[in-house]
Design brief:
Length: 271
């Protein structure tokens, strides 16, 4: 049977992040992607200029339509900016017994624009984090979820991962892309312990959609029945290669997108 992954997230009109990045990632990794749109954004590589939230009842209707017909093997949750929307997502997943849930707690865009209302942070912690098989905050997002300072090193990253587990998370991947040093180090805290994932830090401004891509790549791996550690390792490799290939694309005038189809780079060069 064809592996199906569902993304529940916001739309990026410049197609570098959000639903569009998720669907590109699913396709690149050989998974059929379905989508539930939670918000429309007027957005490009320079920033977000407007957000139009989808009504909660329509979020619920999309979830019901997808699960009623498709055999969803994994779910990625990204931007859900309001409390009512988060509640609709949580209730929908419960109705349909959603599994292999990957929560990317999208709070601030790469441009610095706020994507999650302050009042919704508590609801996200209460309703989505405990339902997730893994959550994937970056350093600022982990700090925001815990209302603390950004982790400065791997010791503090691991401590924050344990604090997020104490909030109800089943597993936590804290991403170190916002850190410093020659390596970009992510830490996965899971039932088996702590797994360190490191890759050379790549000098590029084209990192728009990195978090969306990482979380959807993990969901793709889970949809293909990989165990959690294997899914995260494969996702790390994919995202690293997509960042390395990003400068081959000339998109926009700000933080450009990753090259989701870097594996097909030869065909892109021939066009």
């Amino acid at each position: 049977m064809t592996a199906v992954a569902l993304t529940i997230a916001g739309s990026d009109s410049s197609a570098g992040a959000g639903i569009q990045a998720d669907l590109k990632t699913f396709a690149a990794l050989g998974v059929y992607g379905a989508s539930v749109i939670t918000a429309l954004t007027a957005q490009n590589t320079r920033g977000v200029t407007a957000i139009h939230d989808v009504p909660p009842d329509f979020i619920a209707a999309q979830i019901d339509a997808v699960f009623a017909d498709l055999a969803v093997a994994a779910v990625k949750i990204g931007m859900v900016s309001k409390t009512a929307g988060i509640e609709a997502v949580a209730q929908g997943l419960d109705r349909h017994h959603g599994s292999n849930i990957v929560v990317d707690p999208v709070i601030v865009a790469a441009s610095g624009d706020r994507l999650l209302a302050d009042a919704a942070v508590f609801t996200l912690r209460r309703l989505l984090i405990p339902r997730a098989r893994v959550i994937t905050p970056n350093l600022p997002e982990a700090a925001a979820l815990l209302d603390t300072n950004i982790a400065r090193d791997e010791i503090e990253m691991e401590a924050q991962a344990h604090a997020l587990v104490a909030l109800g998370a089943n597993a936590v991947l804290i991403k170190g892309g916002h850190g410093e040093g020659p390596e970009s180090v992510d830490l996965l805290l899971h039932a088996g312990g702590v797994t360190r994932l490191a890759a050379p830090r790549i000098a590029t401004v084209n990192t728009h959609g990195t978090g969306c891509t990482m979380s959807s790549a993990i969901a793709a791996g889970l949809a293909k029945q990989l165990d959690l550690v294997s899914a995260v390792r494969a996702a790390k490799d994919y995202v690293t290669a997509a960042i390395a290939g990003a400068d081959a694309l000339k998109i926009g005038h700000g933080h450009g997108p990753l090259h989701h189809f870097h594996a097909f780079a030869e065909q892109w060069r021939e066009q």
